[in-house]
Structure formats: C-alpha cells, structure tokens
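JOB MANIFEST
job_type = single_chain_structure
chain_count = 1
residues = 251
[input]
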Amino acid sequence: MKIIHDNGYNEVERLERRQAIYRNILSGVESLIIAMQKMELRYSTKEIEACADRVTEIIKRNDEKIKLHPELKDAIANIWADPIIQKEIAPRGNEFNFNESCPYFLNALDRITAHTYVPTTQDILMLRITTTGIIEVKFEIKGVNFRVFDVGGQRSERKKWIHCFDDVHAIIFVVALSEYDQVLFEDTRTNRMIESLRLFRSVCNSRWFYNTAMILFLNKKDIFEEKIKTTSIQCLFKNYMGKLVFVKSKS
C-alpha cells in the first residue's frame, strides 16, 4: 500500500533496509548449514566445508551491523552453489525454515554486496522483517483518507493489538498460499497455514470485531503456483482430490 498509494520508498528508507536484507541472507545460509548437519550430509569439497565454518563463526558473533565483505560474500556464494545444497537441501527448504525469498537474494549476491547497492522495490517486497508492535500507514484515494495499521502476526505479538481496534471499519487478513507445507518459526511443530486458519477463526469470532468487515487476501500466488508442481497440497489437506494446478488448487 505504501508503494502504490504513498509514493513508495525514498532513498533513505531504501538504504535503511540494507541491514535487514543482509540479515535475511545470513539467516538463510544458517538454515542451509543447520540442515546439512541435521541430515548428516557432507559438502562437495573441503573448501566449501571451510566456508560453512567461516560463515557460522561470523553469525555467532551476532554483530549489530553486518558487512558482506568480499570474503564473506564468496563464502556464502560457494555454499549456495554447492551441488549437495542445491539437490538435497534447497528443494526441502520448507522443512528447515529456509525462507522462500532467500534464493532471490542469494542469486543476486553480486548486486547486493556492491558498495553502491541501494535496495530496489522488489528487494523490499521480498524482504522478511518480523513486525513488532504496530505500524501505521496513511494515504488518500480520491479524496478519502485511509489509515492502515500493520500488526505482528507472531504469537507473542497478538496480545499487543487484538483489543486495540474494536472501532476499525475492516480487517485485512493476509495468508500466504504457499505456506501449506511450512512450519512456524516460533514453533516447528505447527503448520503455518493451520495456524493462519486458527487465527482467522479467532479474529472473526472475537467480540472486539463483532461489527467489523473481514477481507481475506491470499498472497504469494507465484510461489504457490510453482510449489504445487512438486509438493501436493494433500500433504496438509488429505481430502483434496483435484489436479495439482493453480486454477484448481487455489480454491
């Protein structure tokens, strides 16, 4: 909404998101390394194994500011290019909380690690940032003023907002279609789509929103369309008997 109705992001706002993008990249690589350990797989070469050790050491430092210097960038690139990672780990990323946007960033390392790098609109859209607290966006459409509040969907965040909006006109509830085979970051035993269904039911039936309109948005259609070619939605919805194509599966 900010991009479409509020003039998008200026250069300062774009630059502010560089650190978050770097963290997304490191987090993604960490997930790959942990997955290799859990599956007891070996890297293709000793050199790539050394790269994994180097990246793990940097992650453990938990530096407040991350710099993807050439040595670190090359180590990450080598890990991502490893045939074992590409064949055994990346296709099963949903099992290891390997975020869907990570391949996008890992495939653009040269651009992202350039000294002159300024995040693009697409970079910002692909970025995963955990929403904490409440973020407000204001904009105007044809003389009508809108106020939209973005709230945290994580379990720990819900108690902060659910009672604050009993006078809103509508709730926009966003669910990723592609999360039918993924688990929560905060609870690896709980499927994300099942959790979304539970939360949606809870919000719809809440006494705070008795007179509030509900708008359900199903996003990440592009990822879903590709995923169902290899991962059936029957892994979650056992009774689904339709074809594994987007037009049928989306409903």
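[summary]
The domain at 11-126 is CATH 1.10.400.10 (GI Alpha 1, domain 2-like).
The first strand starts at residue 134 and ends at 141.
exit_status = 0
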